[in-house]
Amino acid sequence: MRLFRLALLLLVLPLPALAQLPDPLFPVLREATGGAPLVPIAQQTWGADAEEPKEGPRNLVSDKDPDAPFADRTLFAGEFRARPGKGPARLVLDYAGFETEPIKRGDRDNWIVFNIALKCPFVEGGKCLGERLPKTQFQNLFETRPDYVNSMKRTPVKVAGRERILLTGTEVFEYDAVPEELMKFFFSFNAPANVETHQVRATLLYGDFTTAAPQAAKADAGESKSPGFLLKLLIFVALAVAAFLGIKALARRMSE
């Protein structure tokens, strides 16, 4: 009887809550060999207030200010001088936002768009051929609709007591920079009407990198079970024992 009461008690206990926002929100960038966290050249983060207005104009390119190629929505990612032997320069863009209404396969406005501008001086015979104004690129980076090969990762989360769908994505751009010449990176971004931007991260770094956790950490994670799994297992065992004892007691009474 006590075990039966225990089983009932376990049933009324709350199950593990829906996942909270990941911490860290974006992948940890690590050295390709060794797995130590990278020290980037520059790293910046922005929130929803940095996004271009959803009502427009969007993807605006301006020629009025070399350091503001996207007018008042220009975001400065960082600058550096390429060093010989350091490997290629890379710009890593991470995006995280929430779905505000169901996104369907037939939706037309379905991309997270990043406009990227690279500014560097003209170098005779070199590969970086920026003029007075930055060279710009219009990039449809992140597919928000589900069930596509390049769709963003979709994670159910609970934020301030509200269940939401978190959309996350990462894109990497590689640049063959001219050594010792100053390079500046700018961009702007916008999301569809049914996506609410949460956070954007821009990282500048040299050479190869990985987002995989070190092998030791992976092994430890694989051996452990989540609290939710253990709780469900305990409930199952308690119910099975209670059912067995209940049937046994019933059979004893009937035999009497």
Largest β-sheet summary:
5 strands, antiparallel
Q: If you compute it from the alpha carbons, what radius of gyration comes out, rounded to the nearest whole angstrom?
A: 26 Å
| Fraction in beta strands | 25-35%
* Average predicted confidence as pLDDT: 78
Oligomer: single chain
Strand segment tally = 11
Total helical elements: 3
Helix content: 10-25%
Termini gap: 19 Å
User: What structural category characterises the helix and strand content?
Assistant: alpha+beta
What's the helix-strand series?
HEEEEEEEEEEEHH
Widest sheet, order of strands: 2-10-4-8-7
Low-confidence stretches: 7-11, 216-226
So what's the overall shape?
A: elongated
Explain how this protein is built.
- With 256 residues, this protein is of the alpha+beta class.
- Helices cover 19% and strands 34% of the residues.
- The strands form 3 sheets. It has a 5-stranded antiparallel sheet, with no helix packed on it.
Task: Describe the secondary-structure layout.
Blueprint: H1 2-12, E1 30-31, E2 42-46, E3 75-81, E4 89-99, E5 111-119, E6 135-143, E7 153-159, E8 162-175, E9 182-190, E10 195-206, E11 209-210, H2 215-223, H3 227-255
Antiparallel strand pairs: 1-11, 2-10, 3-9, 4-8, 4-10, 5-6, 5-9, 7-8
Helix pairs in contact: 1-3
